[in-house]
Amino acid sequence: MDLEALLSGLYDEEAHKSCIFYACMAVLFVISAVFAPLIGYDLLFDPRLRVGRIKFSMEPVACTGLGLGHDGAAPPPLSFNVTLHATSTFRHTFCSSGGATLQAAFSGLTVAVGQVAPFCLEPREPAVIAGTAASAWTALPHGFQERIDRGREKSGGLELEVNLSFKNEFKGEMWMRCRAMLDANLLNKTACTTFIRTPFIYTN
Fold this sequence. Notes:
The protein is α+β, with helices and mostly antiparallel strands.
């Protein structure tokens, strides 16, 4: 085989590879052109994926077990009810069909747990969600009770961290962290910080 034939064969081989490459690029371009409008429609117009925001705030309603009981008796187990105020800017109904898990912690230690019933939030409509948390202990440890008492004397109330977690079909898992001063004669509404796993929800 002479040099001219060899070069011609190499040229044909490279040309063939180039044709395959450009053909693949053309196919990818066509596929992108077909699916790009669909993806754009989902992001911009499909209400399930529309960017929005959900705001929660927590209002402690009633609390027991923070101090001594009647006649100096041991305090009853820690228990409190909270009311969550929620608003949604999504264009669709936002639901948590499995309800939510409620945890209350003091100084990093979980002192009460509970469940929130399943709920739904309508677009741009305020909603109220009730939850109850109670301690599994029949009495708080003595040293821990002393820390609670000192905190109440120092600040005039007991600051608890309340965590709420739930799932949504389209938005994934969601966690909320609220802080509030809890006491029998003190009601305090506080905003909650929200953590999520999906980029389609903006948090407050």
